[in-house]
Write a structure and sequence with these properties.
The complex is a heterodimer of chains A (about 300) and B (about 300).
Chain A lengths: L4 H5 L1 H8 L1 H36 L7 H38 L13 H37 L4 H21 L3 H8 L4 H7 L2 H36 L3 H4 L6 H41 L6
Helix pairs in contact in A: 2-3, 2-11, 3-4, 3-11, 4-5, 4-7, 4-11, 5-6, 5-7, 9-11
Chain B lengths: L6 H14 L1 H26 L4 H5 L5 H37 L14 H36 L3 H26 L2 H8 L4 H7 L4 H34 L3 H9 L8 H40 L12
Classes of the chains: A mainly alpha (about 300), B mainly alpha (about 300).
Chain lengths: ~300, ~300
């Protein structure tokens, strides 16, 4: 079976036209997620912004300067990583559901059930494989770089190894790109079968489709930022956060309420639109590869 | 059978299109110049009340900085608008050459799938260009670093040779890719592969076309500048060669906007037409080349583009 890369690349736009309420529901879900995350780690985020601004003038910040920065990052990652993984699984499953089983439109295709947990598991497996590949590749490149410090002729090897690592990451990303729709459609963690589906004949069209989808998401982001710019001009940009270091959450909310609200809505809508444009094509490609008629 | 396109015919296509649809060409110029007008109007609005001498002072006031930030943000928006307009106008020119018999309301200016494809292909080419430049720079650095400790002269020579080879390679790739945009409009699809295949064996011809386009545009601009200089000298006694010396003495302390604005509006009509004309002369040849090459390709599939 084959698929039409250019046809599938537009699936995100087709989905937006077919199920606009679902896309709005995903934007609302992102708004809730971002809002909750800000309530949890907002003051730490402000601390990071403020510290980074202060450090811009310093040539070599000391370990003491770095300590609060590392602490703030640690708290943010501790909250954002698990919540982000779970939320990402929920949204990516919702997008796959909207294309593979469009009739299950209740709650904007959003659920938290077995499908989502399977997608979360599959994403974790893929993430670990990717991390392992990058880690090993990075170690090899680091060893080559250490050797090149003594023998400069090896710098060419370092560059070629780095390019090979980038190619490997891109290649693996394409090979694993159908894991979410396959896992959802087959009702099991389908890492192996999704990997097998993206072999020789499918690889390049899939890469082309991913590039087109990514560029379209960039374009939507560009247009969205143009539309949102006047709003940001009215309420002020995130630079206003920098002056609020050490402020409590209620003070932050009362001082910068309109700016935070606008920023939240804009980011939620833009992220939902971009995620739909980037994720939906893979479910469409999966369906076509499984023999579904072309849209 | 070897396929080829005529450089002369391609170069002439912009002029033919201008003769066939002069008002459309003007409309393309008007929309292309519009963002520049917007920026001009913004500058008037933001800095109009401020004397030029105030701007030249070393101590910048908070109000001035605030206005500069506002201006930067708005001019960023105008730049995005300019890119969008470029996409819309380019698509309209391609369609006018590829489908000459089609009815085109609003001077062929619209936002549709052709425009989306051109935007995506354009962005892909920009991203690809930068990615290639980074890779080439890295390889050149590695080769240079490797050789530097053996022989500095050899490293510099090889670095220069690498830069030259890379430059030629990038030019070759850009020429191979230059028909992807018109082919995408002609075929009604993302024509990355067909557009690339179309230019196989045509690189030198496309190089000739590109150099020809540059020469024609330069000749038109120089001729118009010379004409403007003569007209200014005869009509108003202004010697353009002494204008530079006047400007070196500094900008006038006050600008009479009441006089300047009507003159700018009068100048807008011919200048916008010129913008549309130059845009057409620069863009149409590639659509014409694409059209010729598609017409000579295998005829076993039905093509949306008019052949011949």
């Amino acid at each position: 079976m084959t698929f039409s890369a250019t046809d599938c690349a537009f699936e995100g736009f087709r989905l937006t036209r077919r199920a606009p309420v679902a896309v709005l529901a995903w934007a609302a879900a992102y708004a809730v997620f971002f809002g909750a995350l800000f309530l949890l780690v907002g003051p730490h985020f402000v601390t990071i912004l403020s510290l980074l601004t202060q450090m811009q003038g310093q040539t070599e910040p000391s370990m003491e300067d770095m300590q609060p920065l590392i602490q703030a990052y640690g708290v943010i990652i501790a909250w954002a990583a698990p919540l982000g993984l779970l939320f990402s699984a929920v949204v990516s499953t919702a997008i796959a559901r909207s294309i593979i089983r469009p009739e299950e439109r209740k709650l904007g295709y959003l659920r938290l059930g077995k499908d989502e947990l399977r997608v979360l598991g599959a994403s974790l497996i893929v993430g670990l494989i990717m991390f392992g590949a990058v880690f090993v590749g990075f170690m090899i490149v680091s060893l080559a770089a250490a050797a090149a410090a003594a023998a400069p002729a090896l710098w060419l090897v370092v560059v070629l190894l780095s390019l090979a690592l980038i190619a490997l990451v891109a290649g693996l990303s394409v090979r694993f790109s159908l894991v979410v729709p396959a896992t959802f459609a087959e009702g099991r963690i389908a890492v192996k079968s999704a990997f097998a589906m993206t072999g020789k004949k499918v690889f390049w069209p899939l890469l082309g489709m991913a590039i087109i989808a990514w560029i379209m998401a960039m374009l939507v982001g560009l247009l969205g930022s143009a539309v949102a710019a006047p709003l940001s001009l009215l309420v002020g940009g995130t630079e206003r956060l920098i002056d609020m270091e050490g402020a409590s959450l209620p003070r932050l909310l009362s001082a910068l309420g309109p700016m935070l609200a606008v920023s939240l809505v804009v980011n939620a809508v833009m992220t939902a639109a971009q995620v739909v444009i980037m994720y939906a094509p893979f479910s469409a490609a999966y369906l076509q590869l499984k023999g579904a008629p072309r849209g | 059978m070897t396929t080829a396109f005529s450089i002369g015919e391609a170069l002439a296509s912009g002029f033919k299109l201008t003769r066939r649809r002069p008002l459309q060409v003007w409309a393309w110029g008007v929309v292309s110049v519009a963002p520049s007008l917007l920026i001009g109007a913004l500058m008037l609005h933001l800095f109009g009340a401020m004397a030029l001498t105030d701007m030249a002072t070393e101590e910048t006031s908070a109000a001035f900085i605030g206005q500069m930030i506002q201006f930067q943000a708005l001019s960023g928006l105008a730049n995005i608008l300019q890119m969008l307009i470029w996409v819309v106008v380019t698509a309209a020119i391609f369609r006018a050459v590829l489908f000459p018999d089609r009815q085109t309301p609003f001077a062929g200016l619209k936002v549709g799938m052709d425009e989306v494809r051109i935007a995506v292909v354009g962005l892909a080419m920009i991203v690809g260009f930068y990615a290639a430049a980074i890779v080439i720079a890295l390889i050149a650095f590695a080769v240079g670093a490797g050789l530097w400790f053996v022989s500095e002269a050899a490293a510099v020579t090889l670095g220069l040779l690498t830069a030259l080879a890379a430059g030629l390679f990038v030019w070759g790739v850009l020429l191979r890719a230059c028909l992807i945009m018109p082919a995408s409009v002609a075929l009604g699809d993302f024509a990355f592969v067909p557009g690339w295949k179309l230019t196989k064996g045509q690189v030198l011809r496309l190089l000739g076309l590109t150099l020809g386009v540059i020469a024609v545009v330069l000749a038109i601009e120089l001729a118009l500048l010379a004409l403007a200089a003569v007209v200014l000298f005869v009509a108003a006694g202004i010697n353009v060669f002494s204008l530079a010396a006047l400007l070196e003495q500094g900008a006038p302390p006050e600008v009479d906007w009441g006089v300047l604005i009507p003159w700018a509006l009068v100048a807008f009509v011919p200048l916008s037409w010129l913008q549309g004309f130059l845009g057409t002369v620069m863009t149409a040849p590639y659509a014409q080349a694409c059209r010729s090459l598609l017409a000579q390709g295998p005829q076993d599939e039905e093509r949306p583009v008019a052949l011949g």
